Amino acid sequence: MIDSPSINVSDIEFQADTLDVHEAAAAYQEHGCLVVRGLMKPYVDEIRADIMRRFDLAMSLYDKATKNPNGWGTPDGTLWIPAPKSFTRDKQIMVVSCSYMISSAFLRSTFHTPTLDLAEAVLGPNIELFMNGQCLVKEPVGGHPKNLHQDGAYFEHRFEGPFAMLNYAVDTSIERGALYVVPGSHKLGILKHVDTLSHLGLDDREWPWEKALPIEGEAGDSIFFHVKTIHGSKPNYTDQPRPVFIHRYRAANDFITVSATNVADREKADKVKEQATKENQHGFMVRGVRPFETQA
């Protein structure tokens, strides 16, 4: 069990303009997380504008939301979850429908050379995109918290798993919903999760926020974390939205063995995970080439 953060942000922090990818990769492998200041600055303004356009679109479609297994969905593809009591409506935005299929800037940013150099140092030479990009927005004055959790609880992989990159689209303080991480927690394996308002999360009696390290940052700062690293974020208490965008890279031969968003589905999928194959789990290649033997 990891008690409280034994390292500071400065121990996992690098600057984009002086980035040594091998040193950064070593820090990532040791701590399961990494901060690179300013890495996405070339793209952040354009991506933020695209995210907020989709945010406004989702709001305009609020009355058309329909129930789905993870909450509600509007016709644009935005995911909504229950709103806190302080809201004047019963739903709040969680995942905005801004993806690689929607935003050219978002897609272009996946090919950023320094980012791919870092991904290669962690994953090897043949790298594909996992998923279609993800943009989350915490609404003002109480926008959704995300309990401490491991992404591996949602999508456990056969090998290394995704190399995730969360990017601040605006300057983000603790009050605005900064990301928290638990350095070293990737070495604990996949832990037991419980159902929460925002899907799977760790029991907060075992994993309170005091065990995690908050990472405040500016627009364009990037936080990398392992699929088994514990992370999460508190509500947005400011009067402005908090958008972030996420890239996930993985080795071209890796694949999901367990996929779920709630405890019941996870337990069911875990029983058959040995039957999982790479078939139909091919993402767009962003570096290298897909070896023939990875094609199931």
Structure report:
The strands form four sheets. Strands 1, 2, 3, 4, 5, 6, 7, 8, 11, 16, 18 and 20 form a twelve-stranded mixed β-sheet that branches. Helix 1 (21-31) packs across helix 4 (113-123). It is built from five helices and 20 strands. Helix content is 19%, strand content 28%. The chain is of the alpha+beta class and 296 residues long. The longest helix is centred in the N-terminal third of the chain and has 20 residues, at 41-60. The relative contact order is 0.20.
End-to-end Cα distance, whole Å, is 38 Å
Portion in strands: 25-35%
DSSP E strands, number:
20
* Tally of helical segments: 5
The best one-word shape is globular
Largest sheet: 12 strands, mixed
The helix-and-strand class reads alpha+beta
In the predicted model, the low-confidence regions spanning at least 5 consecutive residues are: none
The gyration radius over C-alpha positions equals 18 Å
Q: Percent helix among the residues?
A: 10-25%
Q: Mean pLDDT, rounded to whole units? A: 95
Order of helices and strands: EHEHEEEEHHEEEEEEEEEEEEEHE
Task: Give the arrangement of secondary structure elements.
Layout: E1 13-15, H1 21-31, E2 33-37, H2 41-60, E3 66-68, E4 71-73, E5 79-82, E6 91-96, H3 104-109, H4 113-123, E7 127-129, E8 134-138, E9 146-149, E10 155-157, E11 163-168, E12 179-181, E13 194-196, E14 199-201, E15 213-215, E16 222-226, E17 231-233, E18 242-251, E19 256-259, H5 263-270, E20 285-287
Parallel strand pairs: 1-2
Antiparallel strand pairs: 2-16, 3-4, 4-5, 5-6, 6-8, 7-18, 7-20, 8-18, 9-17, 10-19, 11-16, 11-18, 12-15, 12-17, 13-14
Helix pairs in contact: 1-4
